[in-house]
Amino acid sequence: MLKTQNRKGVLRNCPICEKLFTDTGIGVCQKCYDKMRDYENQINDFVKEHPHCTVKDIVRQTKIPLKFATNMINKGQFIAGGKITYPCSRCGKAITSGLYCGSCMALVHEATANAKRLELERKAKEEQERIKKKYAEKKSSGMNILKILRGK
Residue 113's beta-bridge partner residues? Predict the structure, then answer.
């Protein structure tokens, strides 16, 4: 049982089992929290025995959901010192850390740089349009004064 420190709970539905519970900061009901801790212990025990396993090996042998095992690996929650491989979120290549392999990470960086460049170009174009509009307004207002002075 998780002990809480005089926190007022908020009534919520558990994101895992959908049952109503009083959330005191852990985000899931006590039953699901205990189940998650049990999953973590099972995975840690398996990884200690098989330090160079893959996430598929973990899921196949422990029968723990892939999403939970992958999330735990991504957070780096393992006690064991071995390298665990799991699939890249984009291409599926085996990786040992992060969400993406090196080549996919390069593509993400390239896409981010392109998006930033396009945004800067858009802002520069908007600024040019604003300056042109302001200049045209000044020019037309000056011509209007001349027309008024000439009596047209």
Answer: none
